[in-house]
Task: structure prediction
Amino acid sequence: MEVVDIFARAKINLSLDVIGRRPNGYHDVRMIMQSIDLHDDISLYRSKGSGNIIIEEASGSVPLNKDNLIYKAAAVMMDKYHIKDDLRVVLKKNIPVAAGMAGGSTDAAAIFKALNIMYELNLTVEELCSMGVKVGADVPYCIMGGTALSEGIGEILTPIIAMPYCDILIAKPDISVSTAYVYNEFDKLEEKKHPDVSAMSNAIKEQDIRKISKLLGNSLEGVTIQKYPIIEEIKENMLGKGAIGALMSGSGPTVFGLFDSMNKAVIAADHIRGLGIAKDIILTKPYNAQ
Ligand code: ATP
Result:
């Protein structure tokens, strides 16, 4: 195939527990990941050449050089499968950057999948994931997608049944959060919060959206809110406008709210927009491929 078009979906963490720090600086986590419908659009083109990777993106919000995770993913595959063509990647970035929604990891995951299709490599999800983890801890999950328990540094994945349907409001304040900073500050805490990840997994299996909303929890949330109280303000406003639960995703600063009606989610979105406390406000829903 000369061209492959693919969606790269964002994720939220319904539960995120940081269990410990390894000597190499990586953290052991237990997380419940959920893909959402919000996605970047990626088109991959190949042409005869000498193995160049060209990335095009119009907004200027991400690096277009070797620092882009798309580049890293393509380089891993090209090296391993001796791909000598030139590759051109046209990226339309819809997922807010440095937001805690795995925007870079999901773009990388999409490139692994797209190259698998383009060159008819017939690689399994497991084979793609073992290459993906070299690019980033969240890449294997993004390759798999859906609803999953993620353990280890993120590479041990157990799929679980899809979360029940709900409307999801995403709101990201106009700040950038360094993941390294958040984990460093978390390591220094004497009292660390640990959400009940197993209970969340059970609530999903029971398809109980109210229980899911009650159990939302993120070990890192307190650290990021301490530095950026606007995150708490967004949460409170979502809950005040009818969210059945709200939480910061990943290391932040994005907040997501779960709603049992689209109408309430739209009202909450308008309210938050009116307050001017979020730069990106997006209505979406869970995504589980069938
Ligand atoms: P995570 O939830 O995995 O912690 P994130 O959503 O917080 O990820 P990203 O959007 O992946 O963060 O961006 C983190 C950094 O990665 C940014 O500073 C950005 O410059 C860099 N980056 C590299 N490639 C990409 C990409 N394709 N899309 C977005 N960011 C990228």
About this structure: The first helix runs from residue 69 to 80. The pocket of adenosine-5'-triphosphate is lined by residues 62-63, 67-70, 97-105, 107, 138, 179, 250-251 (CB under 6 Å).
